[in-house]
Amino acid sequence: MSSTRSARSRRATRALWLFPVPALALYLFFFAYPTAQAVQYALTDWDGYSTTYDNVGLRNFTELATGDDVFRNAAENNLKLTVTVVLAQTALALLLALYLVRTTRASTLLRALFFLPTVLSSVSVAFVWRFVYDPDGGLLNSGLRAVGLDSWQSVYLGNPDTAVFWLAVTQVWFHAGQMMVVYVAGLQAIPRELYEAAELDGAGRWDSFRHITWPLVAPATGIVVAYTTVQSFKAFDLVLGLGGNPPGPALDLLSTRVYTTFSNNEFGYAAAQSLVFMALIALLTWVQRRALRRAA
Amino acid sequence: MSSPRSLDRRAALRLFGAAGLGLAAAACAGPGGGSGATSSSASPAALATSGTPEGTVSFAHWRAEDKAVIADLIKAFVRKYPDAGVEQDIAPSADYQSTALRRIQGSKTGDLFTAFRGAQFQQIVRAGVYAPLTGTAAVDNYRANLIGPGAQAGVQYGLPYQLVFNMPLANTDALDKAGHTAAPTDWDGFLQLLDDLKTKGYTPLAWPGGDAANAGQLLNTMVMNNAPTDDAFTKIESGAYKVTDDWFLTTLEQYAQLVPYLQTRATGSTTDAVTQLFAQGRAGLLATGSFQMAGVRALGAKFPFDLLAPITTAAGKAKYEGVFNTTFILGVNSASKVQPAAYAFLEFLGDPANAGVYANGTGQHVTVQGVDYTNTDLKAVAPWLTKKTLLAPRFQFLNLDIRTAVENATVAVVGGKKPAQAAEEAQRVIDQKRA
Amino acid sequence: MLHKTIRPVVLLLGAAAVVLPLLVVLFGTFKTLPQLFDSPLSPPGSPTLDNYRRAVDEGGLGAAFTNSLVVTAGAVLLTLVVASLAAFFCARMPGRAGWAVFGVLVAGLAVPAQAAIVPQYVLFDRLGLTDSLLGLVLVDTTMTLPTAVFILGAFLRTIPEELYEAAELDGAGPLRAFRSIALPLTRPALATTGIFLFVMDWNDLLYPLLFVRSQEHRTLPLALLDFQGEFLTQYPLLFAGVVIASAPVVVVYVLLQRHFVSGLTAGAVRG
């Protein structure tokens, strides 16, 4: 009996191996293989259209690491953007989730509203916000003028020191609602009794948040932080829409830098940049996981 | 939108391990194998000008706003050659700048295609996509002195169709009100003009500092007389000149002097916004170029136009009165399957009558000889066709990163940065990118 | 009780921040550019559908709409089929193999698309798949697979082992277990994933931008980009395009909201 069963289950296991074949075939052939090819391109000076090229070894990488202010500037902008978005979006998403965790008609409606921007396309959002930030006839400055706060008007994306932070504002507007939903699910999983018990012990609102909510919502925080990091690090369409193509130094990010290098027909160099870009995302994700686990 | 990742540590480790394996296991053909062109030899086949024009020609270009006019011309073309057809394939200019070569290689699109002057044109030449036009009848329709940007090493690869003046557009009503009927002949005179405009309540110079593509147009006229040679930006790229040289520092200092005369928060202004400001008659000058005349009219402007360039030197020291550019370089694809038809359409566009339809319909001057400009604005600006103008310096740049660095120095100065510091920062980038 | 007053203020500000820009866009579609710049906040004076008409006629949004539908439908269906098979394997395969395949497929979530675009372009071009709707379906399927496998994997792992054991005793092979147990139970998850993929594919710009060359194969986001004339963005036209391109997604969202939420939180609650 048991032997026939194990034979059958072996057969079943073998048949099971066919299941992931289509997915793996598509994925490896159309994605993993080209990604790996990038490694090979990165060791050349190919311009993308000539039939000849030279192997230059690691020269592209040494140039990136030691003598490319433009790339470094893009990396710095990217880091500023990601840190700002992660902090602001996580805090805002949690705040909104705390306010809307109870399922009443009003909060269901508001949750739906805050989530809405997420389903729009980046191109649409970029065009909308280009108009919002337009310093001359745009929504923000017109609004400020309308309420008599003329002195608050700003140049927004036109100030190289703060442009990245305005980009961050747009990114948060775009996706905070999405992360709020993750938090709502996390909060709803916390048993009510815990709060009731704490209240009986005379704990205040802040105490319950610190000792019950924050620790118990940690898994959701982990997801929100990891996801927001990758999402904001990969921002691309949004920057092209807001900052033009190619964007100026104030809004240049790693993704747009790779694309611009590619447009400059420096394929080999662009491939090297894209690999560094990938490595940075991996590193950032790993550092975060460690930090979050240590905190937990 | 995708879903968040929640992998435990071991899964994450395996994940990176697997990805690493995948990377190591992949072997691939050299980059050259993927040029996309069946054979991109550097010496393209001669152009097939004979043969009946038949089949559908894909015409790749970046002028979405010319679509309707070109569609009318296509109708007329098809009446002439009933077996041929033309389809427009339009990409926005920024995308066209970066992807055109890959789109047209192997002629999957763009049997007839356009190119920007400078970097893009040269790349397409190097990639062997042009079927040379030297000696064809089509070339004879053009003014020989204007089609240089479509030639290289004595071979005419393409024909620049549009003639534009990349210099400030003027609202002559406003200039009259400010008491200026003639263009200033030196820098102080120019500043005086701006000051008088300001006194009359105008924004003297509307400048789209927030739009990289157009913020740099003003640089053309700002350097045309300051630069020691006509190919100064080429020399910046080669390292012979530096942006820290006196002539460029002077230019940057002059930018700083313009600040009080620009609209407030100019470094963030989009082209749309300044065009709107100018179209409403609230600005004296619009620091972009003649290519915007049609757009400004479309916004309902009724006042007459002229062009007016700042003369940045003392009177009598100036070599040039303005700048021009010829671009929208038409070329036939060497790999095209419908070459006779593509060439026929190129020749058709160069016919003075058809070029006139294009010019008057789109508000652009053209490089074709004997065109009758009936459009009021084109007529008003026509005297510039014979003035002393320089081929726009800005388009000498072949490297986009270097161009961005130089133009951004001007924006930074307007934003309050010290000229010397802005120049130094730009030079650092140039030195790195020149390698 | 400071909290009592802060909450409504925060929520009101947040709601305004979401609604106002979108309202300006909607109103803007009924205005001319000068009207829009002069008073962006005011409701339209004389509602005219001119901008929509021009957006459809001049911008060729009709054909683009059809292309978007074809590509999106094809990619979503194909992705659901291959991803559910793969996710079933990941959930059912004993030992490390299941996790390894899952890891490989989900790794794609962290890889920026820019890393592969150059070689990807070359590959698709050599296969003759650039400038074709089939090529877009394939590339969209590939790029959304990680997401689909991730969500479906999370759902499939929640199916109790006992259900499968009962079927195995009846001598069911994996295909029958998949068909008669996994699929019926994951129907809501499939709907959720499908909607997710719909939004991703519908809004994708990068691949059409890279691959599509001719007018006839253009998708909506790409057609939207064409609204930027070379030197002058026609905001009202652009806004009309934004409304047309966003309408289907917003309608689907309003009707099927709960699926969006459950897809997003598939992995969130399990500690």
From TrEMBL, chain B:
Pfam families: SBP_bac_1. Residues 1-29 form the signal peptide. The keyword Signal applies. Keywords: Signal. Transmembrane segments: none annotated. This is Extracellular solute-binding protein. It comes from Streptomyces asoensis. The lineage of its organism: Bacteria, Bacillati, Actinomycetota, Actinomycetes, Kitasatosporales.
